[in-house]
Amino acid sequence: MRFEISRGGSGLTYEIRNIVMIAKKMQEYGLKIIWENIGDPVQKGENIPDWMKEVLIDILREDMSYAYSPTKGVDATRAFLAERTNARGKIQITPDDIIFFNGLGDAIARAYSSIQVDARMIMPEPTYSTHLMAEVLHASFPPNTYRMNPYNNWAPDLRELEHKVKSHRAIVGILIINPDNPTGFVYPVEALENVVRIARENDLFVIADETYINIVYNGKKTVPIGDVIGDVPGIAMKGISKEVPWPGARCGWMEVYNAERDPIFARFINTILHQKMSEVCSTTLPQMAIPRIMTHPEYKNYLRRRTQHYEKLSAIAYGVLKDVPFVIANKSNGAFYMTILFNESVLNERQRLSVAPPELQSYIEKLTKGVEYDKQFVYYLLAATGICVVPLTSFFTPLLGFRMTLLDKDVDEFEFVVKTLAEKITEYIQSSK
Fold this sequence. Notes:
Layout: H1 15-27, E1 34-35, H2 50-60, H3 75-87, E2 98-101, H4 104-113, E3 120-125, H5 129-139, E4 144-149, E5 155-156, H6 158-167, E6 171-177, H7 189-201, E7 205-209, E8 234-239, E9 252-257, H8 263-278, H9 284-294, H10 299-321, E10 327-329, E11 337-342, H11 358-367, H12 373-385, E12 387-388, E13 390-391, E14 401-405, H13 411-430
Parallel strand pairs: 1-12, 3-4, 3-6, 6-7, 7-8
Antiparallel strand pairs: 2-9, 4-5, 8-9, 10-11, 11-14, 13-14
């Protein structure tokens, strides 16, 4: 080419997917991989029920399922979702306050790219990689963050949040992820009200990623942000990837609150919509399916059974890992992830796990040179056991640890994985002594 055409990246890697390439390389050495890296219930053995498949088959017989939909989304589906929100009685929206996207990754990218370069979001730390990368790409700087405290069951440090939004005038919006990914923390109503108060007092808007809002267990309670948003401008991001679950549909939407109350926020939403217009619309079929699936008489029981399963796996993982020396394991109460944290200064570059054959040992030694200490552990764990987890530092935090899923449909296999993790953590830490 006559000159460089690549814009260049942010220097960040989406480790949830990147580690798949490393795992596939290790498969060439005969290693069987146990995939704990990504939140795909179907990949982990979720059987989509026949009644749900029949719903989709019926829709496929309708010609409109093959057509473009309106830019904001299928009219009937947006009316259905608005009615569900309004039925709670906490806030009233119209179908025009809902915009569909090709998955929440698309929604996140378009929202952050619509923010001025010198305006910033503040987000939890650790934070889900898609939000992190979208903020870095929009601003060309690392994000502003407030800590999720592992010594307080991963609760957000709202004092730090309040201090930072008062100190940094460039911050225009607060991100919460409820239930949280990667930690599994569920926001109690009081915490949500405090976030909204901080936003109101500092003239900010709120983005609430509510991908897992209906996957809450262990007796914990939360509410959608719409129940407490009051008069504060905000966006709830929702989807069907994990709840239905249908991750391959790439179908998510925004619910916009109080845009009419603030002309600056209204222009921001309009910028997002005009970006969406250039794409014409989002995929029609899954949008048409949403009302029919969610009103099906089997749906509530199906969701309840799945949530009970995650609760069971959460208890198993916590029961095994909470007593492992030198780590902090908090019980997950929502979504289907668990984050394990290594105690400070317990990891170093000298630690190893036994790996065979020698060629794989050589590969892993090259791979781990100069990487973060938790990534070194994750790669050695993968090479020694085939268990594929995600290093915690890839969620933009200096904390060292890893995220695993609570998705395995085979309880005995899951218990084996967790016990293997406990054994290998101990072996790895002791290897440098």
